[in-house]
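Field guide to reading this record: the first block holds the primary sequence, the second block holds the structure written as discrete tokens, and the final block holds curator observations. Each block starts with its own label. This record concerns Ig-like domain-containing protein, catalogued under organism Oryzias latipes.

BLOCK 1 — SEQUENCE
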Amino acid sequence: ARSSGKTQVYQTPSQIYSKPGQEAKIYCSHRESNYDQILWYKQSEGQMLLLGYVYFRDTYPEAGLGVKLGGGASKDQNCTLTVEDVNSSSSAVYFCAARSHSDACG
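BLOCK 2 — STRUCTURE
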């Protein structure tokens, strides 16, 4: 039986101010022992864009979006999203989401 409690996902920092050309790094972690995948999204002008995901320690960034993924997606590990070359279109809300990889097969 699955618990109906919400999974706690922690994202830091809550706000980043970067100059053009710099990189910005966001960290995400969770406390769920059976979750092994973290997905990163960017919300801009009402659109949600998948930036990529981390499965255990394997990274799968979407091509051409100027982001790097790192770290690990398992419990208590830090998963990182790096926006490599900050510009005006980088201004957005970024989300991370954690899930169990086996959920995708159900």
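BLOCK 3 — OBSERVATIONS
The chain has a mean pLDDT of 91.
The first strand starts at residue 9 and ends at 12.
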